[in-house]
Protein backbone atom coordinates (compact mmCIF):
# COMPACT_ATOMS: atom_id res chain seq x y z
CA UNK A 1 0.00 0.00 0.00
CA UNK A 2 1.13 3.51 -0.71
CA UNK A 3 2.55 5.34 2.29
CA UNK A 4 1.77 8.69 0.64
CA UNK A 5 -2.02 8.25 0.69
CA UNK A 6 -4.51 8.19 3.54
CA UNK A 7 -6.31 4.85 4.09
CA UNK A 8 -9.44 6.27 2.41
CA UNK A 9 -7.54 7.52 -0.67
CA UNK A 10 -5.54 4.30 -0.88
CA UNK A 11 -8.77 2.30 -0.70
CA UNK A 12 -10.21 4.45 -3.50
CA UNK A 13 -7.15 3.77 -5.67
CA UNK A 14 -7.29 0.03 -5.12
CA UNK A 15 -11.07 -0.31 -5.47
CA UNK A 16 -11.03 1.54 -8.79
CA UNK A 17 -8.45 -0.95 -10.11
CA UNK A 18 -10.53 -3.86 -8.78
CA UNK A 19 -13.63 -2.44 -10.40
CA UNK A 20 -11.88 -2.37 -13.75
CA UNK A 21 -10.71 -5.99 -13.40
CA UNK A 22 -13.75 -7.65 -11.75
CA UNK A 23 -12.07 -11.07 -11.60
CA UNK A 24 -13.25 -11.51 -7.98
CA UNK A 25 -16.86 -10.45 -8.62
CA UNK A 26 -18.45 -13.53 -7.07
CA UNK A 27 -16.22 -13.80 -4.01
CA UNK A 28 -18.38 -11.92 -1.48
CA UNK A 29 -20.79 -9.00 -1.15
CA UNK A 30 -18.02 -6.42 -1.64
CA UNK A 31 -17.31 -7.11 -5.28
CA UNK A 32 -20.80 -7.02 -6.79
CA UNK A 33 -21.48 -3.91 -4.68
CA UNK A 34 -18.50 -2.05 -6.13
CA UNK A 35 -19.74 -2.56 -9.70
CA UNK A 36 -22.59 -0.06 -9.21
CA UNK A 37 -20.35 2.93 -9.84
CA UNK A 38 -17.03 3.93 -11.33
CA UNK A 39 -16.21 6.72 -8.86
CA UNK A 40 -16.31 6.16 -5.10
CA UNK A 41 -17.18 8.72 -2.46
CA UNK A 42 -15.96 8.25 1.11
CA UNK A 43 -19.36 6.87 2.13
CA UNK A 44 -19.19 4.26 -0.64
CA UNK A 45 -15.81 3.08 0.63
CA UNK A 46 -17.06 2.95 4.22
CA UNK A 47 -19.93 0.74 3.07
CA UNK A 48 -17.64 -1.60 1.11
CA UNK A 49 -15.23 -1.83 4.04
CA UNK A 50 -18.00 -2.89 6.44
CA UNK A 51 -19.30 -5.46 3.96
CA UNK A 52 -15.83 -7.02 3.91
CA UNK A 53 -15.33 -9.97 6.27
CA UNK A 54 -11.54 -10.11 5.73
CA UNK A 55 -11.71 -13.65 4.31
CA UNK A 56 -8.66 -12.78 2.16
CA UNK A 57 -9.66 -14.92 -0.81
CA UNK A 58 -9.44 -11.94 -3.15
CA UNK A 59 -5.82 -11.30 -2.17
CA UNK A 60 -4.66 -14.78 -3.15
CA UNK A 61 -6.69 -14.70 -6.38
CA UNK A 62 -5.39 -11.29 -7.42
CA UNK A 63 -2.79 -10.87 -10.16
CA UNK A 64 -2.01 -7.30 -9.08
CA UNK A 65 -0.64 -7.87 -5.58
CA UNK A 66 2.99 -6.97 -4.79
CA UNK A 67 5.47 -7.17 -6.45
CA UNK A 68 3.17 -5.87 -9.21
CA UNK A 69 3.35 -2.09 -9.43
CA UNK A 70 -0.36 -1.80 -8.50
CA UNK A 71 0.47 -3.50 -5.14
CA UNK A 72 -3.14 -4.32 -4.33
CA UNK A 73 -4.02 -5.54 -0.83
CA UNK A 74 -7.79 -5.19 -0.62
CA UNK A 75 -8.21 -7.07 2.70
CA UNK A 76 -5.73 -4.80 4.48
CA UNK A 77 -6.89 -1.48 3.05
CA UNK A 78 -10.57 -2.24 3.68
CA UNK A 79 -9.69 -3.35 7.22
CA UNK A 80 -8.02 0.03 7.80
CA UNK A 81 -11.04 1.92 6.46
CA UNK A 82 -13.41 -0.28 8.47
CA UNK A 83 -11.56 0.31 11.75
CA UNK A 84 -11.29 4.02 10.97
CA UNK A 85 -15.06 4.15 10.54
CA UNK A 86 -15.60 2.52 13.95
CA UNK A 87 -13.21 4.99 15.57
CA UNK A 88 -14.55 8.05 13.78
CA UNK A 89 -18.21 7.34 14.44
CA UNK A 90 -17.72 6.24 18.07
CA UNK A 91 -18.48 8.46 21.03
CA UNK A 92 -16.04 9.46 22.49
CA UNK A 93 -13.53 8.91 19.69
CA UNK A 94 -10.49 9.11 21.96
CA UNK A 95 -11.60 6.04 23.96
CA UNK A 96 -12.15 4.06 20.75
CA UNK A 97 -8.65 4.88 19.47
CA UNK A 98 -7.11 4.02 22.83
CA UNK A 99 -8.83 0.63 22.94
CA UNK A 100 -7.84 -0.26 19.38
CA UNK A 101 -4.15 0.17 20.16
CA UNK A 102 -4.00 -0.77 23.87
CA UNK A 103 -7.00 -3.08 24.18
CA UNK A 104 -5.44 -5.87 26.25
CA UNK A 105 -3.98 -3.50 28.85
CA UNK A 106 -7.14 -1.37 28.98
CA UNK A 107 -9.52 -4.32 29.38
CA UNK A 108 -7.23 -6.05 31.88
CA UNK A 109 -6.90 -2.96 34.07
CA UNK A 110 -10.66 -2.38 34.07
CA UNK A 111 -11.34 -6.01 35.01
CA UNK A 112 -8.92 -5.79 37.97
CA UNK A 113 -10.40 -2.51 39.24
CA UNK A 114 -14.01 -3.65 38.87
CA UNK A 115 -13.30 -7.07 40.38
CA UNK A 116 -12.02 -5.33 43.51
CA UNK A 117 -15.12 -3.09 43.45
CA UNK A 118 -17.52 -6.04 43.33
CA UNK A 119 -15.48 -7.94 45.91
CA UNK A 120 -15.78 -4.92 48.22
CA UNK A 121 -19.55 -4.87 47.70
CA UNK A 122 -19.83 -8.44 48.92
CA UNK A 123 -18.89 -7.13 52.38
CA UNK A 124 -22.41 -5.63 52.51
CA UNK A 125 -24.22 -8.93 52.16
CA UNK A 126 -27.99 -8.84 51.89
CA UNK A 127 -29.99 -10.23 54.79
CA UNK A 128 -31.69 -12.77 52.54
CA UNK A 129 -30.82 -14.48 49.28
CA UNK A 130 -29.55 -17.75 47.87
CA UNK A 131 -26.74 -18.60 45.48
CA UNK A 132 -24.82 -15.56 44.34
CA UNK A 133 -27.68 -13.37 45.60
CA UNK A 134 -26.39 -14.26 49.06
CA UNK A 135 -23.29 -12.22 48.18
CA UNK A 136 -24.81 -9.36 46.17
CA UNK A 137 -28.45 -8.34 46.28
CA UNK A 138 -30.60 -8.48 43.18
CA UNK A 139 -31.56 -4.80 43.35
CA UNK A 140 -27.91 -3.81 43.69
CA UNK A 141 -26.98 -5.74 40.56
CA UNK A 142 -29.90 -4.25 38.62
CA UNK A 143 -28.96 -0.71 39.70
CA UNK A 144 -25.37 -1.23 38.50
CA UNK A 145 -25.85 -3.24 35.30
CA UNK A 146 -28.94 -1.67 33.69
CA UNK A 147 -27.27 1.70 33.04
CA UNK A 148 -23.97 -0.06 32.22
CA UNK A 149 -25.81 -2.00 29.50
CA UNK A 150 -28.22 0.61 28.14
CA UNK A 151 -25.76 3.52 27.94
CA UNK A 152 -23.33 1.71 25.58
CA UNK A 153 -26.28 0.52 23.47
CA UNK A 154 -27.46 4.14 23.15
CA UNK A 155 -23.95 5.20 22.05
CA UNK A 156 -23.87 2.38 19.49
CA UNK A 157 -27.31 3.42 18.18
CA UNK A 158 -25.99 6.94 17.58
CA UNK A 159 -22.94 5.54 15.79
CA UNK A 160 -25.07 3.29 13.56
CA UNK A 161 -27.35 6.24 12.78
CA UNK A 162 -24.34 8.26 11.64
CA UNK A 163 -23.07 5.29 9.64
CA UNK A 164 -26.42 4.96 7.88
CA UNK A 165 -26.35 8.61 6.89
CA UNK A 166 -22.75 8.42 5.71
CA UNK A 167 -23.27 5.42 3.43
CA UNK A 168 -26.57 6.72 2.06
CA UNK A 169 -28.75 3.95 3.45
CA UNK A 170 -32.27 4.31 2.11
CA UNK A 171 -35.69 3.24 3.22
CA UNK A 172 -35.66 -0.07 5.08
CA UNK A 173 -38.15 -2.79 4.16
CA UNK A 174 -38.82 -6.05 5.96
CA UNK A 175 -37.32 -7.98 3.04
CA UNK A 176 -34.03 -6.10 3.47
CA UNK A 177 -33.88 -7.01 7.15
CA UNK A 178 -34.72 -10.67 6.45
CA UNK A 179 -32.03 -10.84 3.75
CA UNK A 180 -29.40 -9.24 6.01
CA UNK A 181 -30.19 -11.45 9.01
CA UNK A 182 -30.18 -14.53 6.77
CA UNK A 183 -26.72 -13.67 5.45
CA UNK A 184 -25.43 -12.94 8.95
CA UNK A 185 -26.95 -16.13 10.41
CA UNK A 186 -25.23 -18.28 7.77
CA UNK A 187 -22.12 -16.09 7.74
CA UNK A 188 -22.41 -16.38 4.00
CA UNK A 189 -19.56 -14.01 3.25
CA UNK A 190 -17.05 -16.14 5.16
CA UNK A 191 -17.46 -18.90 2.57
CA UNK A 192 -15.39 -16.95 0.06
CA UNK A 193 -18.18 -16.95 -2.52
CA UNK A 194 -17.38 -20.48 -3.69
CA UNK A 195 -18.53 -22.41 -0.64
CA UNK A 196 -15.09 -23.86 0.15
CA UNK A 197 -14.30 -21.48 2.99
CA UNK A 198 -11.94 -18.54 3.32
CA UNK A 199 -8.18 -18.09 3.23
CA UNK A 200 -7.71 -16.43 6.60
CA UNK A 201 -5.42 -18.87 8.33
CA UNK A 202 -2.94 -20.05 5.70
CA UNK A 203 -2.33 -18.59 2.27
CA UNK A 204 -4.33 -20.04 -0.58
CA UNK A 205 -5.63 -22.94 1.53
CA UNK A 206 -9.42 -22.87 1.90
CA UNK A 207 -10.93 -23.58 5.30
CA UNK A 208 -14.27 -23.18 7.09
CA UNK A 209 -12.66 -23.09 10.52
CA UNK A 210 -13.00 -19.33 10.92
CA UNK A 211 -16.64 -19.50 9.91
CA UNK A 212 -17.33 -22.31 12.39
CA UNK A 213 -15.56 -20.54 15.26
CA UNK A 214 -17.43 -17.32 14.49
CA UNK A 215 -20.72 -19.20 14.51
CA UNK A 216 -19.87 -20.89 17.81
CA UNK A 217 -19.09 -17.48 19.29
CA UNK A 218 -22.16 -15.74 17.89
CA UNK A 219 -24.70 -18.43 18.70
CA UNK A 220 -23.09 -19.11 22.07
CA UNK A 221 -23.39 -15.41 22.93
CA UNK A 222 -27.03 -15.38 21.82
CA UNK A 223 -27.77 -18.45 23.96
CA UNK A 224 -26.19 -16.76 26.99
CA UNK A 225 -28.18 -13.61 26.31
CA UNK A 226 -31.36 -15.71 26.02
CA UNK A 227 -30.44 -17.41 29.30
CA UNK A 228 -30.23 -14.05 31.07
CA UNK A 229 -33.46 -12.88 29.43
CA UNK A 230 -35.31 -16.04 30.47
CA UNK A 231 -34.04 -15.65 34.05
CA UNK A 232 -35.33 -12.06 34.05
CA UNK A 233 -38.77 -13.20 32.93
CA UNK A 234 -38.84 -15.99 35.49
CA UNK A 235 -37.81 -13.57 38.26
CA UNK A 236 -40.23 -10.75 37.52
CA UNK A 237 -43.15 -12.50 35.82
CA UNK A 238 -43.17 -15.85 37.62
CA UNK A 239 -41.61 -14.89 40.94
CA UNK A 240 -39.01 -17.65 40.55
CA UNK A 241 -35.71 -16.31 41.82
CA UNK A 242 -32.19 -17.62 41.20
CA UNK A 243 -30.39 -19.89 41.71
CA UNK A 244 -32.01 -22.14 39.11
CA UNK A 245 -31.61 -25.92 38.87
CA UNK A 246 -29.74 -27.63 36.06
CA UNK A 247 -32.89 -28.55 34.14
CA UNK A 248 -34.28 -25.01 33.95
CA UNK A 249 -34.36 -22.72 30.94
CA UNK A 250 -31.57 -20.37 32.10
CA UNK A 251 -29.21 -23.29 32.66
CA UNK A 252 -30.24 -25.23 29.54
CA UNK A 253 -29.48 -22.13 27.48
CA UNK A 254 -26.52 -20.71 29.40
CA UNK A 255 -24.35 -23.79 29.89
CA UNK A 256 -24.10 -24.82 26.22
CA UNK A 257 -23.87 -21.16 25.25
CA UNK A 258 -20.93 -20.62 27.58
CA UNK A 259 -19.14 -23.72 26.30
CA UNK A 260 -19.67 -22.62 22.69
CA UNK A 261 -18.24 -19.19 23.48
CA UNK A 262 -15.14 -20.67 25.12
CA UNK A 263 -14.46 -22.95 22.14
CA UNK A 264 -15.21 -20.15 19.69
CA UNK A 265 -12.90 -17.68 21.47
CA UNK A 266 -10.06 -20.19 21.71
CA UNK A 267 -10.43 -21.05 18.02
CA UNK A 268 -10.53 -17.43 16.87
CA UNK A 269 -7.44 -16.54 18.93
CA UNK A 270 -5.62 -19.56 17.51
CA UNK A 271 -6.46 -18.56 13.93
CA UNK A 272 -5.51 -14.95 14.58
CA UNK A 273 -2.08 -16.05 15.79
CA UNK A 274 -1.63 -18.07 12.57
CA UNK A 275 -2.94 -15.41 10.17
CA UNK A 276 -0.75 -12.97 8.25
CA UNK A 277 -1.05 -9.59 10.03
CA UNK A 278 -0.15 -7.78 6.80
CA UNK A 279 -3.58 -8.69 5.39
CA UNK A 280 -5.51 -6.92 8.15
CA UNK A 281 -5.36 -3.71 10.16
CA UNK A 282 -2.11 -4.53 11.94
CA UNK A 283 -2.20 -1.47 14.20
CA UNK A 284 -5.35 -2.72 15.99
CA UNK A 285 -4.25 -6.35 16.41
CA UNK A 286 -4.11 -5.90 20.19
CA UNK A 287 -7.60 -4.43 20.40
CA UNK A 288 -9.09 -7.24 18.33
CA UNK A 289 -7.31 -9.90 20.38
CA UNK A 290 -8.44 -8.22 23.61
CA UNK A 291 -12.06 -8.33 22.46
CA UNK A 292 -11.97 -12.06 21.65
CA UNK A 293 -10.11 -12.78 24.89
CA UNK A 294 -12.66 -10.78 26.89
CA UNK A 295 -15.56 -12.74 25.39
CA UNK A 296 -13.83 -16.00 26.23
CA UNK A 297 -13.12 -14.92 29.81
CA UNK A 298 -16.73 -13.81 30.31
CA UNK A 299 -17.92 -17.28 29.32
CA UNK A 300 -15.20 -19.12 31.23
CA UNK A 301 -15.80 -17.22 34.48
CA UNK A 302 -19.55 -17.77 34.11
CA UNK A 303 -19.01 -21.51 33.83
CA UNK A 304 -16.55 -21.36 36.72
CA UNK A 305 -19.08 -19.55 38.87
CA UNK A 306 -21.63 -22.30 38.25
CA UNK A 307 -19.04 -25.00 39.03
CA UNK A 308 -18.18 -23.22 42.30
CA UNK A 309 -21.79 -23.31 43.55
CA UNK A 310 -21.94 -24.11 47.25
CA UNK A 311 -18.24 -23.47 47.89
CA UNK A 312 -16.22 -20.59 49.34
CA UNK A 313 -15.12 -19.70 45.81
CA UNK A 314 -18.51 -18.23 44.87
CA UNK A 315 -17.67 -14.77 46.27
CA UNK A 316 -14.37 -14.22 44.42
CA UNK A 317 -15.61 -15.95 41.25
CA UNK A 318 -18.72 -13.75 41.26
CA UNK A 319 -16.57 -10.61 41.58
CA UNK A 320 -14.37 -11.62 38.63
CA UNK A 321 -17.30 -12.70 36.45
CA UNK A 322 -19.29 -9.52 37.10
CA UNK A 323 -16.18 -7.45 36.38
CA UNK A 324 -15.60 -9.11 33.00
CA UNK A 325 -19.27 -8.74 32.04
CA UNK A 326 -19.23 -5.08 33.06
CA UNK A 327 -16.07 -4.40 31.04
CA UNK A 328 -17.59 -6.13 28.01
CA UNK A 329 -20.65 -3.87 28.30
CA UNK A 330 -18.70 -0.67 28.89
CA UNK A 331 -16.33 -1.27 25.97
CA UNK A 332 -19.03 -2.31 23.47
CA UNK A 333 -19.07 1.02 21.59
CA UNK A 334 -15.27 0.99 21.23
CA UNK A 335 -14.31 -2.67 20.83
CA UNK A 336 -14.87 -4.96 17.86
CA UNK A 337 -18.30 -5.75 19.32
CA UNK A 338 -19.52 -2.76 17.31
CA UNK A 339 -18.58 -4.51 14.07
CA UNK A 340 -21.66 -6.72 14.38
CA UNK A 341 -23.94 -3.67 14.41
CA UNK A 342 -22.10 -1.93 11.55
CA UNK A 343 -21.90 -5.07 9.43
CA UNK A 344 -25.60 -5.80 9.89
CA UNK A 345 -26.36 -2.20 8.90
CA UNK A 346 -24.12 -2.63 5.84
CA UNK A 347 -25.95 -5.83 4.83
CA UNK A 348 -29.35 -4.15 5.27
CA UNK A 349 -28.22 -1.15 3.20
CA UNK A 350 -26.86 -3.47 0.53
CA UNK A 351 -30.12 -5.45 0.39
CA UNK A 352 -31.98 -2.21 -0.30
CA UNK A 353 -29.85 -1.21 -3.29
CA UNK A 354 -30.57 -2.17 -6.90
CA UNK A 355 -28.87 -5.22 -8.37
CA UNK A 356 -25.50 -4.27 -9.87
CA UNK A 357 -25.10 -4.12 -13.62
CA UNK A 358 -23.16 -6.86 -15.31
CA UNK A 359 -24.70 -9.87 -13.55
CA UNK A 360 -23.38 -9.49 -10.01
CA UNK A 361 -25.15 -11.12 -7.06
Automatic annotation (TrEMBL):
Segments passing through the bilayer: 98-121, 141-164, 216-238, 253-273, 285-307, 313-334
InterPro entries the UniProt entry points to: Citrate_utilization_prot_B, NarG-like_sf
Keyword DNA-binding included in the entry's annotation: no
Keyword vocabulary terms for this entry: Membrane, Transmembrane, Transmembrane helix
Annotated protein name in UniProt: Tricarballylate utilization 4Fe-4S protein TcuB
Name of the gene this protein is made from: tcuB
Amino acid sequence: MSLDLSPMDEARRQIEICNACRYCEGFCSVFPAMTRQKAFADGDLTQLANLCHNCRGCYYACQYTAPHEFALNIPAVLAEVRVESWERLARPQAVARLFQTHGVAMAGLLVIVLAWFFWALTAFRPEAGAGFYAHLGHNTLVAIFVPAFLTPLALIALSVRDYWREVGGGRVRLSHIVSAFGSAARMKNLSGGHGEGCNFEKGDRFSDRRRVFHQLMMYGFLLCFASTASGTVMHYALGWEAPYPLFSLPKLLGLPGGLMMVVGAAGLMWLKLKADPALGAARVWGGEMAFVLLLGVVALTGLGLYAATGTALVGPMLAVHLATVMVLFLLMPFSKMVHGFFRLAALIAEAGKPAPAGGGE
